Amino acid sequence: MTELKTLALFALTALAEIIGCYLPYLWLKEGKSAWLLVPSILSLMAFVWLLTLHPAAAGRVYAAYGGVYVSMAILWLWAVDGIRPTSWDMIGAGVALLGMAIIMFAPKAT
Q: Judging by beta carbons within 10 Å of its beta carbon (0-12, 13-18, 19+), is residue 37 exposed, middle or buried?
């Protein structure tokens, strides 16, 4: 799988997880409809399925995915919550992405 496809798949996976967790948050913390749990469940099911599409070993995928999740959560903070990330947020996201790149794209013994 090419690096760009891997990143895109991780980003889509992170978005599915964030949506799946955000909708119950709206229900529990902001008094929105419990019907939000239906798309939440579907989104979390998509998240699990998307994780299985990576050809790498599951442990490596889970470890590397965390870096992309951190970065997507910072983007969510800005786009959805309307809070501009600090420079420290951006540095942290960059470090997390660097860790993901090292885990996923470094040469591996076969």
A: middle
